[in-house]
Design goal:
By secondary structure, the protein is α/β, with parallel strands linked by helices. It is built from 15 helices and 14 strands. The chain has 2 domains: 246 residues, Peroxisomal Thiolase, Chain A, domain 1, CATH 3.40.47; 152 residues, 3-Layer(aba) Sandwich (Peroxisomal Thiolase, Chain A, domain 1). A 10-stranded mixed beta sheet has the order 5-4-6-7-1-8-14-13-9-10, with helices on both faces. The protein has a two-stranded antiparallel sheet with strand order 2-3. A two-stranded antiparallel sheet has the order 11-12. Helix 3 crosses helix 6.
């Protein structure tokens, strides 16, 4: 098919799937998010490692064999790939998409990412190398570790022969995947793309690395560990999971009678070009990414806007994001917006977190509910927007902005619109 004029093709969400600390299906996930249930739990199994980290967002009751993977598949794949396949299968089923039936295999793409890849396998195989020698390294070591094999395994499992990409950009990775997938569909390179991310890095090496970078909360009480926009916040909480959205060209979706969940309308992508971990304090590049997404998404002052904030619970990130929202929207519109951080409940799923928060944004639009920022009892005076503290709020929403800000200065934002 010849590439189309991007102005004539629109991109919609027709399916979603998730494996997360807050639930392993969309209904359970959303119920827990709206109820403000904290999915952060005490970290177990590393008590003798000397780690100054005591809690995490752990995926519970995940059995890859329940999602169409065989014992051989499990043996040959890292946990991040297994969760990616599981979430993608859910999303395809939700959308009613079957390669070769509802979409031609060559018109179906896979934009699935991981911020780090198979870190668990890396740790295990390093130990094998040091204790047993090179001959004992698994022949599957490399394909289990490299971050693009989440996308590769999803494409293989579901016969997606179109464009296959893995945009690795730290905490913004899966938001990049959604944005870039939308551009590919608009350009006519695919009709359907599985877009999202997966991460599984709850191992002592990753925990120690982030802890020693002074990025993690050291609280022992799960309810006090992740406190976005609160004066008491002390760092983010590591989590794992996978989240996938089915993006589809609008007319393709309508022709097959698909339910349209939301429209992807805008995408902004910038870089601070400032520091490897700290955000730029003037917030200008982050604000520019938000403004690009809002302008492309057709945001008009006075519309009811929901912002799913990156909201990690680190001191600098929360202040910078607040400033950026004011710069992007203007003071009055920023204060009119409903903002919340779902990380307050799930923790930070790294390469999966942007897609998980895009799912929250879609569901907020569809249900007219702004999910809460739990734990926000003592607001930081420098974080003075409406962060929906403690309890969800009903509000008819027109448009959502989902923000992701990552190490390396990545700023990535998408806008989604309510349909109907």
């Amino acid at each position: 098919m010849k590439e189309a004029d991007s102005g004539s093709r629109r991109v919609v969400v027709t399916g979603m799937g998730i494996i997360s600390p807050s639930g392993n299906d969309i209904a359970t996930f959303w119920d827990n998010i709206v109820a403000g249930r904290c999915a952060i739990v005490p970290l177990e199994g590393f008590e003798d490692m000397g780690l100054p980290v005591y809690v995490a967002g752990v995926v519970k009751d995940f059995n890859p064999l329940q999602y169409g993977l065989t014992p051989k598949d499990v043996h040959r794949t890292d946990r991040f790939s297994q969760m990616a396949v599981a979430a993608a299968g859910q999303a395809l089923a939700d959308a009613g998409i079957v390669s070769g039936e509802t979409v031609a295999p060559e018109r179906m793409g896979t934009y699935v990412t991981s911020g780090i890849g198979g870190f668990d396998t890396q740790v295990k195989q390093t130990k094998v190398m040091l204790t047993e020698g090179a001959s004992r390294i698994s022949p599957y070591y490399i394909p289990m570790v490299i971050p693009n094999l989440g996308a590769g395994n999803v494409a293989i499992k579901f016969n997606a022969q179109g464009p296959c990409m893995a945009h690795v950009s730290a905490c913004t990775s899966s938001t990049n995947s959604i944005g870039e997938a939308s551009l590919a569909i608009k350009a006519g390179r695919a009709d359907v793309i599985i877009a999202g991310g997966s991460e599984a890095v709850l191992n002592p090496m990753a925990l120690a690395g982030f802890a020693n970078a002074r990025a993690l909360s050291t609280e022992k009480d799960p309810l006090k560990a992740c406190l976005p926009f609160d004066r008491r916040r002390s760092g983010f909480v590591m989590a794992e999971g996978a989240a996938m959205l089915i993006l589809e060209e609008m007319e393709h979706a309508r022709a097959r009678g698909a339910e349209i969940l939301a429209e992807v309308t805008g995408y902004g992508c910038t870089c601070d070009a400032y520091h490897i971990t700290l955000p730029r304090q003037d917030s200008e590049p982050a604000a520019r990414a938000m403004k690009l997404a809002l302008e492309e998404g057709g945001y008009r002052p006075g519309e009811n806007l929901y912002v799913n904030a990156h909201g990690t619970g680190t001191r600098f990130n929360d202040i910078v994001e607040t400033r950026a929202l004011k710069l992007a929207l203007g003071e009055d519109e920023a204060h009119r917006a409903s903002v919340s951080s779902s990380k307050s409940m799930t923790g930070h799923m790294f390469g999966a977190t942007g897609a998980a928060e895009a799912i929250v944004s879609v569901l907020a639009l569809r249900n007219g509910i702004v999910p809460p920022t739990i734990g926000l009892e003592d607001p930081d005076p420098e974080c003075d927007l409406d962060y929906t503290p403690l309890k969800a709020v009903r509000r008819k929403l027109d448009i959502a902005l989902s923000n992701s800000l990552g190490f390396g200065g990545h700023n990535v934002c998408i806008t989604l619109r309510r349909v109907g």
